[in-house]
Amino acid sequence: MLGGIFAVGIGLDSEPGISISLNLFQADVAPITLRxxxxxxxxxxxxxxFVVDVLHPDRPNVSKADLSQKLAALYKTxxxxxxxxxxxxxxxxxxxxxxxxxxxxxxxxKKFEPKHRLIRVCTISIxxxxxx
Length: 132
What we know:
Layout: E1 5-11, E2 19-24, E3 32-42, E4 47-55, H1 64-74, E5 82-89, E6 95-103, H2 106-112, H3 115-120
Antiparallel strand pairs: 1-2, 2-3, 3-4, 4-6, 5-6
């Protein structure tokens, strides 16, 4: 069975931030809800930074690649500009919290982001020198 988006709803909650609910009709993929909080536009570092709360009641966890795809679609940017780190699942499952950064352009991302996170999002590649 091919997967796809069955319903997408974007709405504002009583607390500040954006909430998105995605319902996917694959058997192995349950719906997740993304909520952002502590949203800051950091002009000095050319990025937007915020905390993401992920509600996934029927899944053990959500991958960083899935989160970056959904956040890129939500904030209308490329998935390569989204950096997610410090992802923690609460005890008992069902809810995760992560910190996310969305850079305005590739140059500012390469300038301000640490090298290990650039390697994770495949912005730069590792050069391995074999010593003989």
